[in-house]
Write a structure and sequence with these properties.
The protein is of the alpha+beta class. 40% of the residues lie in helices and 28% in strands. It has one domain: Alpha-Beta Plaits (2-Layer Sandwich), CATH 3.30.70.
Length: 109
Amino acid sequence: MTKITIFKKDGIIVGYKVKGHSNFANAGEDIVCSAISMASEMTLGGLKEVLELDVEGIVEDGFLQVRLETRLAKDDKVQTLFKTFELAMSSLEKDYARNVKMEVKEDVY
């Protein structure tokens, strides 16, 4: 199962963590894992390459984590990226409940 954590501070998304494998299908055929990977890496890429933020993401096999300082996370464009990621993960959790679990942690900083 893939576990997704959305980190919030004062109602503002400041980051996210993706951990594990969905085990929906065999490696290379797992559409759920592919969707999660694409959304999480696209969000990180948007922060770094499009918004040109100095973001340090931790990316390893079966793990990705991104956290921003609250002052950077408050930007409307950052929130648009984070909220879109949250929406995509929520949709996957609804459609693939046996493979994806999302939680929101408030006031993490």
